[in-house]
Amino acid sequence: MELEKAVEALKEEGVILYPTDTIWGLGCDATSEKAIEKLANLKGRNKNQRFIILLEDDRKLNKYVKEIPEVAWDLLDYADKPLTIIYPNAINLPRNLIAEDGSIAIRIVKDGFVNQLIKKINKPLVSTSANLTGEPSPKSREEISKKIINNVKHIVNLQIKNKNAKASSIVKLQISGEIEIIRK
Length: 184
Hints:
Layout: H1 2-11, E1 16-19, E2 24-29, H2 33-43, E3 52-55, H3 61-64, H4 70-78, E4 83-87, E5 104-108, H5 112-121, E6 125-129, H6 146-150, E7 154-155, E8 169-173, E9 179-183
Parallel strand pairs: 1-7, 3-5, 4-8
Antiparallel strand pairs: 1-2, 2-6, 3-6, 4-5, 8-9
Helix pairs in contact: 1-5
C-alpha cells in the first residue's frame, strides 16, 4: 500500500518524504525537471546545489554516466556502508540535476523499501535529507520541520530501523581514477 501511494505521488511529479537506507529523505522523480524544481524550492536550496540520485542496481549506471571510472566498481563492491559516488559526465538527466562541472552523485540502494520503490517507478529517484537548507539532518520523523511535512505530496508511513542513522559517505571520482573524499 505505501509503495503504491509513493509511486502515484512520484508519477504526479510530487515530492515524497520517506525513510531511506540512511536517514529520512525527500525525493522525487529524477527525470522530471518540474519535480526537481519543486524539491529545490521546498528545501530553500541554492540553484547551484545539486541533489544525489538513487538507483537500485549498479548495472543502471551506464544509463546515467557516460564513462564510469574503473575504480568505481571496486568501491561499489567493497563498500560496507551506504556510499554515494560523484561521477563525471552525467547523461540522460535533466539539466537542473547535473552539477555545473557535468557530474552527478549516485548511490546504489541494494534492498528495502527504497530499492522496491525505484524498481516500481523504473526511474532514478532524487534523494536529499529531509531538512530545510542549513538545518541539521533529521534522525527521526519527529525531527522533521512542519514546513516540509505540510508541503510534500506524500509521507511514507514506515520507520527507519537503524537508530544510528546517518548520511552516506561521499566520494568524487575523476575519469583518471583519482578519488576525492567529500564526506566520511
